[in-house]
Each structure stands twice: as structure tokens, then as C-alpha cells.
Automatic annotation (TrEMBL):
One of its GO terms (cellular component) is cytoplasm. SUPFAM superfamilies: alpha/beta-Hydrolases. Keywords: Hydrolase. InterPro entries: AB_hydrolase_fold, FSH-like_dom, LovG. Belongs to the LovG family. This is Esterase mlcF. Pfam families: FSH1. Gene3D superfamilies: alpha/beta hydrolase (3.40.50.1820). Residues 11-220 form the Serine hydrolase domain.
Length: 237
């Protein structure tokens, strides 16, 4: 019997962990989704630039997986500087991956909690042409996303629209909301404030502030992510 040839994914997803977590923790948290998409995508993990205390629900389960990081610091007074530091951390991860894996370009971003907010900033920067080093992100996935008045004001101040409007992100996006998530209001605010309704999809799951774990929820996410790529490739053909 001839052994099956393992399929090598030809695309990658940039993964942005939550505040007070790490790439190692996020890799563990994403295990069910990684398994569902193992033939389609590689997963690339960026590390937050700031040392942080463990985030919600990180302890005690991940107590042995030190250190913990965040993307933005609470109380920081220079938002532009915070974004610049964030960009450098993302750029380092992107360029390291791209240099070593030209066969699997990054085509999307997936962020959890504060990582969802960071993903929102990144997608907005892409739309504004502010990150020319970033591969074209065809989609964004935000799970239990955070919201920030500071980030919203920064985006509003740096958008090229009159009247203080916020530039809404047009790239296809998937917003995954936990029905019992303490952050649910923030996730909805980020969706309503920063994303075009016509290109945004929402999946709800029965759960709190975590990556979905049930098979049916993971399958829904995986199908939508594949659909994003298929639809983009059809448009580019």
C-alpha cells in the first residue's frame, strides 16, 4: 500500500494572542481550529512587545508557560508610539516567516481578545496603506474581540475622511462572539464601529471568553475561513 502524501498548506494565517498570553499559549488554545484547517493553512504566531501580567483565565492552567505579553499598555499616553511598537513586533514575525516559508504566504489574520483589537488596527492600517511591508490580508477573524476608545480615537484622527468619521474596514471579516463572554459588548462595539456590515460575518457560540471548543463551532469557523479564500481567489481570477 502506497502511503498517503501529506498535503503541505500553501497559505498561512497570522495569529495574534490575547493580552497577558503568549504565542505558545495561543497555539494551545487554537489546537481544535488548527486541526480543522491543517491541510489548508499554516499558523504564524507573533509575540506581543510588552511584558504583562497573566490575562483573564490564563491562570492557573497556563502557569507553567511563562512569559506573558500584551500588545498595548494600559495608561500609555502616546498612542502613535504604542502603534509603532506594535507594528515592529508584527513586522518581525511576518518577515521571519516570509523569509523561511515563501511557499506559504500570509493571507489572513486571527486575533483573540486584545489580539482582536490589534488585528483591527492592523487591518485598518492595511486599508490606509500604512504598512507596505505587510502581505495582503484577505480576511480577518476576531474572537471575543476587545474595544478601545483610545484606539478608536487614534483611527478617527488618522483617517482621511472629513467630519471625524472612522474609516470602516472593508476586508471580509469573521466575528466570533461568546454568548456569556464578559467582553461581548466590546466585541459588538468593535464590529459596529470599525467594520463594514456588508463584508462582516458573525458566528455566535455558547461560551465565555475563550476560543470555541465544540466541534460544530470550529467547523463553522473553518468553513467561513475557507470561503473567504475561495471568494477572494474567484475575484482575482
Amino acid at each position: 500500500m502506497v502511503p498517503a502524501v501529506k498535503k503541505v498548506p500553501s497559505r498561512a494565517i497570522l495569529c495574534i494572542h490575547g493580552g497577558g498570553a503568549s504565542p505558545e499559549i495561543f497555539r494551545f488554545q487554537l489546537a481544535p481550529l488548527r486541526a480543522a484547517l491543517k491541510d489548508d493553512f499554516e499558523f504564524v504566531y507573533a509575540a506581543g512587545p510588552h511584558a504583562a501580567v497573566p490575562g483573564p483565565d490564563v491562570l492557573p492552567f497556563f502557569a507553567g508557560m511563562k512569559d506573558f505579553y500584551s500588545w498595548f499598555r494600559k495608561g500609555a499616553t502616546d498612542t502613535a508610539d504604542e502603534v509603532a511598537v506594535f507594528n515592529e513586533a508584527i513586522r518581525s514575525a511576518v518577515e521571519t516567516w516570509t523569509g523561511a516559508n515563501p511557499h506559504a504566504p500570509i493571507v489572513g489574520v486571527l486575533g483573540f481578545s486584545q489580539g482582536g483589537l490589534a488585528s483591527t488596527v492592523l487591518l485598518w492600517e492595511q486599508q490606509m496603506g500604512l504598512v507596505p511591508w505587510l502581505p495582503r490580508l484577505r480576511f480577518g477573524v476576531l474572537v471575543c474581540c476587545a474595544y478601545s476608545d483610545v484606539a478608536t480615537e487614534y483611527i478617527r484622527a488618522n483617517s482621511r475622511l472629513g467630519g471625524g468619521e472612522v474609516v470602516r474596514i472593508a476586508v471580509p471579516s469573521l466575528h466570533v462572539h461568546g454568548s456569556q463572554d464578559y467582553n461581548l459588548g466590546q466585541a459588538r462595539d468593535t464590529l459596529a464601529t470599525h467594520y463594514c456590515a456588508e463584508s462582516a460575518s458573525v458566528i455566535g457560540f455558547e461560551g465565555r471568553h475563550h476560543i470555541p471548543r465544540k466541534v460544530e463551532d470550529i467547523q463553522k469557523m473553518a468553513r467561513q475561513i475557507r470561503r473567504f479564500v475561495e471568494e477572494d481567489e474567484a475575484l482575482q481570477a
